[in-house]
Amino acid sequence: MTNFTKEQNQAINDYGKDILVSASAGSGKTTVLVERVLKRVLSGTPVSSLLIITFTKAAAREMKERIKQKISDQIEKEPNNQFLRSQLLDVDTANISTIDSFCLDVIRRFYYVIDLDPQFSVLTDETQAELLKERALHEIEIEYLEKNDQDFQDFYDNFSGDRDAEGARNLLLQLYNTVVTEPNYEKFLNNLPNSYQVQDDLIESDLWQTHIKPLLVKEIGDMQNEIKQLFENPQMENPDLVKVKENYDIFASRLEQLLNALKDNHSYNEIRANLMNCKFEKNIRKSKKWSEESLETYQESQKLKSDLNDQLKKIFANFFVVEEKEQVNILKKSEKIVKTIVDTEKKLIKRFGQLKREQNLIDYSDMEQFAFSILTTDTSNAHIAQEYYQEKFNEILIDEYQDVNALQENIIAAIKKKGQNNLFMVGDIKQSIYGFRQARPDLFLSKYHAYGQNDDSEKIILSDNFRSTKRVTKTVNSLFNPILTANFGGIDYKKEGQLQFGATYYPADLPTASEYIFTDKKQTQASFEENFGDKMDFSEIQMVIARIKQLKKENFQVWDRKTQLKRPLEYSDIAIITRTRSDNLQVMQEFAKADLPLFVTDAQNYFQTFELVMIMNYLRLIDNPQQDIPLVAVLRSPLFNFKEPELGQIRVKTRSGNFYNALTSFASVNSDLGQKCKNFLQQLESLRSFAATHRISELIWSIYERTHLLEIVTGLPNGQQRRVNLESLYERATSYESAGFKGLYQFISFIERMRKNQKDLAQPLLSDKADNAVKLMTIHASKGLEFPVVFVMGLGHKYQTRDLSGNFTISKDGLGLTIKEKDYRIDSLVKSLADVEKRQQMLEEEARILYVGLTRAQQKLILVASVSEMETKQKKWKSEIDPKTNILPLIRKINAQSPLDFLGPKLEQKHEFDQTIEDMTLALEEQDKIYYLKFAVQSDIEEKDEQKDDTQKLSSKMNDVVKTLYNFEYPFADATKTTAYQSVSEIKKVFNDPMDTELENSRLISSSNRYLQPIDETPVFLEKQKFTGAEIGTAMHLVLQYYDYQGDKTELNLEQEIEELVELGKLNPLMVPHLSKEALNWFVMSEFAAEFWQKPEKLHRESQFSSLMNASELFNDFSDSAAKILVHGTIDGYFETDKGLILFDYKTDFVDKTHEEQAIDKIKQKYTGQLRLYEQALNEISENKKVIGKYLILLDARKVVPVD
Length: 1204
Prior knowledge:
alpha/beta; six-stranded parallel sheet; seven-stranded parallel sheet; PCRA, domain 4; 28 strands; Rossmann fold; 49% helix
C-alpha cells in the first residue's frame, strides 16, 4: 500500500471546498489525482459524474488506464462488488478528456442552442484552416480597397513594407489567435482603443497614472535599492573611495528628484528633463595605491554605474524619446489606427466563420467559443446546457491548471455547481510554459494567493519530490532559489517552491553528482552567430558525445526501480533536452558519425530540411532571379552541381553587380563552364515562362521532372522521407490553389508565414534503434517525463525577442503599435509599456522552461553550454547575487540574454571553474562538478592556403557560405525581401576606391537584403585565430569612444582607460598588445583634441542617427528614381563650438610613409562620401547648429585631414 504524505492525503481526501493543489515536479500529482478518483468511486460516486480535464490526449488515456487499474485492483479484493464492476466498464466513456474534447461533447449535445448544423466536421488540417483564414482576409482586403477606404489604407500603409502588406496581415492573423481565447472577444476588441485615449495633458491620462507611472516608480525604486546595497558595503566608507561615494551621492540625489517628480505628477516635459539630468557627474579613476578591497569595491561600483546608466537609457528610449506634444499626437494617431484594426478584425472573424460554415466545418477555436456560447445562452428563460452539466458533475478535476486560458477558465466556471465548492485544480506555476498558446498563469497565481483565506477554499502544496536523487534536488533548489521570487515568477521559491527530497529508495552509493560542462566558444564563433543565427556550438555536441561514451565505458550504474537493483547504464536511460528543435539535424549528424543510437521524439523542422530549402530557393529564383542567396544555393545544390572553383571563376570575371548578372555574363564565354551557365539560365527562363501560364502545383511538379529532384533526394540518406516531404509540398500547393489563391510570390509568402508562425508540416524522424537509444527532445516535449541521466544543452543560446522588435505587440491587456511618421518610426507609449511587461513575462516563462528541463533528471543532471568570453562573464556573475538576500536582483533577471544569465551567478558564487576535464570521474560526493574547457575549433588550426590564387581563395570562401546554407538552419529567409534600409557601413562602400570594392559590392548580408549583397565573404568563424586590421581598428575606436577627458591631462590616462575597458568586459584582453598606444596617445594629446579637455560636455561620441535620404544621392542605379532610403549609422564624434559643429571620423588605414601625400589623398577620396552622409544627417538632426568642418583622423599617419 502506498504511504502518502500528509499533504497528499489532504489532496486525496478533502472535500467541500474549492481546492488548489500546487504540485512541484516529481511530487506524484497524477498518482494523487487517480487516488482521489478511486476514493470517490469507492464512496459510491459514479465515475460518469466526474469531469476530469487533462492537458493532452495522451494524459487522458494514461489517466483512464491508471483509474481502470486501480478499480481492477480493488475488484480483486471485492470480487462481488457489482458497482465497482460497472464503474470499470464506464471509465472508457467517462468525461476524462482534454477541454477541446469536452467542448466538442457540449456542441454535439446542444448544437441547436446556437443553430449549428449537427452534421458538422472538425477541421483538423491546420494548413487548410490557415488557407481558409487567408482567403477570408483576402476577401476583406478586396472589399476595403474597392470602397477606397482611407482609414484602412492608412492602417495598411503604417505596417507595410516596400513590396507587400505582410506587416498588417501578420498583425490581424496574430491578433486573431489571441482574441479567440477570450470569453467575450468583441468586448476585448472594443476595449483596445481605450488605452490610447488621452487629452493634451499626458500625466492625467489613465495610461500614465494606472500603468506607466507605477512601472517607472517601481523601476526607479529598484535602482535606489541597488545603490543602497552598494552603500551598505563598509568599504564605501574607505577614504580611497570618497570621490566614488560623492559621485554616487550626487546621482542618488538626482534619482530622488526624478522619483519625486513622478510621484508629485509634475508635467511630462519636467519629468523628461529630470530624467535627462539623471547622470553621474564624473568618471572617477581608480588608483594603483588603493587596497585590494577598495579596488574590488570600486569595480563593483563601476559595474553598477554601467547598469544604472543602461537602465535609464532604456527608460528614456521607452517613454521619453520625444516631448509631450509629439507623444500625444502619436497616441491619437495610434487610436485611430487601432479602431480600424478592431473593425477589420471583427470582419475577419465573421468572414472566416462564414467560410467554415459554408463547408460545415468547425476548428479548435470554434469548439471552445461555441461551447462557451452554448453554456451561457439563455433559452426560454433557462440555461439548458449549463444546468445540465451543473447537475451532471459532482466534481470537476482539472490537471495542469496553470496552462488554462481565459476562455477555458470561463467554461469551467459556467459548469461549476451553483452554491457548491466542487472544483479540484492541480498545477504548478513553476511549470507554466505555454504562453504561445495564450496560457494564463496569472489565473493560477490569483487563486494561489487567495485560497485558504476562508472556509470555501483550500490550498495544498505538494513539495516532496519522489523522482530525483538528493543531489539533483539540491542542485535544482540551489539554482532556482535566486531566480524565482514574488516579483519574478509570482512565487517565492525559497519559501514556498523548493523541492523536498522524497525519493529515499535510492541507495547511498550511486554516482549522482551534477555536472556543468562549459566549452569556451571562440570569438569567431560568436561573430558567426551574429551573422547566421544562434546555432548550437559544435563543441557542445562533441562534449555530450564524449561524456556519454565515457559513462558507458566506465560502467556507470543506474538504479532500476522495477527490479530494485543497480544495473549498467543503457543508452535509453539518457535524454538530451534542448530549448528548440532547430539543432536536431546537427545533433543527429554528429551522433551518426559517432555511431551512437539516437531517437528523435520531436518532429524535424519541415521547412528547414535540405530538400525543402532547395526547392523553396528555386521557387524564389523563378519569382525573382535577382537574388544572390537563393541563386548561389541552387547552383551549388545537387540540382546543378556548380563547384566552388566554378562559382569563383564566375565572380572573378564580373566582380561588380549581383551574381545573376555575373552568371549571365559568363554564359557568353566559350567554355564548358560557360555552357553550364547557359544551360542553367535556359532552364530558369523556361520555368519562369511556364510559371506565368500554369498553376503553382504544376510548376513544382515540372521542376521535379526537369531536374529529377525526386530521384536525387531518394538516393540520399533518409531518402524516402525526403521524397515524401517534396510530395507533401506539391500537395500543399494544390490545397493552396483549391482555396482560391494564385500567384507564386503569394505562395512563397504564405509558406514563409507558416514557417515563422511554427505551422510546420514536420514528420517524426525515427531511429531503428529506438528501444535502446539516446532520446533527443525539446523541453516542452519532455514535460511529464523522467530519465536517469539528463543532458540539458544550449544553455548559452540567446533568447529570441523578435516579438518585441516588430511594429506591434499583442498582450493579454491590449495592442501596442509602432507608428510610421514621415521620416521615422516610433513606438507609441502603449507599445513601449507592452514591450516592457511582455519582456518580463517572456523571461519569467523562460525561467520556468529551464526549471522543467532540469527537473526531468532522476539520478544525474548534466548542464552543457558554450560560452564566449568566459572569464569576463565569471567576473560579471561573481557580484550579481545580493549577498544579504542571496537573490538575483530583478534588474539582472529582466536583462537576462540566455539561460546562463540566470544560472551563472549562482554557479560562480558556489564553485570555481576547473580548467581541465581530466578529473571528470564517477564522483560519488555530494558536491557538484563544474568543468570549464578550452575547446579547439577549426579556426585554431594553421591554414595553409595563403598562396592560393584569387579564384581558389574566392571559391573557398563561397563554398563556406554555401556550406553554411546547407549544414545549418537556413538563416537567409529575410534576405529575399526588399527593404529600404541601409547602414552607412554598407553605403560607404559605394564611395570607396573602386579597386578596393570590386568584390565588396556583391557580398551577402545575412540579416537583411541591403543594396550591397556580398557573396564571397569567409564566415568569421573559419578564419585564422588572429585579429584582423578591421578588428584592431574597432578596438581603437572603442578606446577613443570611452576615453575620459575630464581628468588630468596626462599620457598615463590611456593605460588606465584600457585597463578599465578590459575589466568591464568591453575590450578583449588579448587585443591590448595589438593596440597602437602611440597613435592613441598622439590623438588625445593633440592640438585638435585640446578643446575636448577644456569642454568635455561639448564632445559627442558614437552618435547614432537614422535619416531618410534620396536613393539617387547614394547609388547611381537609382539616378532616375524618387525612391527614399532610411539610412542608419553611427558618427564617431563631433564637437560643439559657438560657430557650429566640428565633425570627425577615426581611420586606422595604413599610410605608406614613402608616398604619404598620395596615400592620404587616396584615403581622403575614399571616405569623402561617407563624411558627407554624416554631415547631411547631422545637419538634419541638429536644430540650431550646422556642420562647419569635417575631418579625418588618420591614426596611422598621425594626421588630422580636413575634408571638403
